[in-house]
UniProtKB/TrEMBL annotation:
UniProt family annotation: Belongs to the short-chain dehydrogenases/reductases (SDR) family.
Gene3D superfamilies in the cross-refs: NAD(P)-binding Rossmann-like Domain
Protein name: SDR family NAD(P)-dependent oxidoreductase
GO molecular function: oxidoreductase activity
Statement: the UniProt record of this protein carries the keyword Oxidoreductase: yes
InterPro entries on file: NAD(P)-bd_dom_sf, Sc_DH/Rdtase_CS, SDR_fam
Keyword set includes Membrane: no
Record key words, sorted: Oxidoreductase
SUPFAM superfamilies the record matches: NAD(P)-binding Rossmann-fold domains
Organism annotation: Acinetobacter radioresistens
């Protein structure tokens, strides 16, 4: 079954890997970014440009979600999958985090995910089908390692929001799940862990390796499939053994 998939924060990094994975499977992928220019550049660099549809969606702006839903109604008349990937990360010592920085991280990561689930989830519920996958994090489960407390707190909130919206939409054909990655072989990890410390960082992971962004994309695709109707409210841990439960 070919689906219409919206991936937020998909111009680069993990979001782009996820978008490319779905596009490579033949799905129609709405690739969103905080600016249309970023989204259009990602389409130009895509291996599957025929399946990529750029969209400006800044998840810190509520009106952008309403505009996105209207665009989807007009252009596709359906939306099957939402991947809430967009996020901002700052590695700031807890005693140095300002109120403004805390509010900004929370607004983007936590409120952005809330509004995506609320506004786009409502549209999915009205059509009677949908798969929502939220991007949580190991940081939200163990209090953070290389990331800041504000980031960790916002990701912990996403785990809770996933359960809340899973309950809300469970009887309406819409599942809501989360994926909680640990440290990946990704630009974000290399931006917060200095090169001279990366080897020791990897040695502290039980499996002695960084995770794969492609595997995260494959996991999202599994949760996004029609056959995944019996999985909702779950958070799937992919962290190399750093957090077990």
């Amino acid at each position: 079954m070919k689906q219409v998939v919206l991936v937020t924060g998909a111009a680069s990094g993990l979001g782009n890997v996820i978008a490319e994975h779905f596009a490579g499977q033949g799905h129609q992928v709405i690739l969103s970014a905080s600016t249309l220019e970023k989204a259009e550049n990602a389409k130009k660099n895509s291996r599957f440009p025929e399946n990529i549809f750029p969209l400006k969606l800044d998840i810190s702006v509520e009106t952008d979600f309403h505009k996105a839903v209207e665009c989807i109604r007009q252009q596709f008349n359906q939306l099957d999958v939402l991947i809430n990937n967009a996020t901002v990360t700052k590695a700031t010592p807890v005693l140095e985090i300002s109120a403004a920085d805390f509010d900004w991280i929370t607004q983007v990561n936590q409120r952005g995910t809330f509004q995506a689930c609320q506004i786009i989830g409502k549209y999915m519920a009205e059509q009677g089908y949908g798969r929502i996958i939220n991007m949580a994090s190991l940081a939200g489960q163990n209090g953070g390692t290389a990331t800041g407390a504000h980031y960790a707190a916002s990701k912990g909130a996403i785990v809770t929001l996933t359960k809340i919206f899973a309950k809300e939409f469970a009887a309406k054909g819409v599942t809501v799940n989360a994926v909680a990655p640990g440290p990946m072989e990704s630009p974000i990890v290399h931006s917060v862990v200095p090169d001279e410390k990366i080897e020791q960082f990897i040695q502290n992971i039980p499996v002695k390796a960084l995770g794969s962004m492609e595997f995260i994309a494959e996991t999202c695709a599994l949760l996004a499939s029609p056959n995944a109707h019996f999985v909702t409210g779950a958070t799937w841990d992919i962290n190399g053994g750093l957090f077990m439960r």
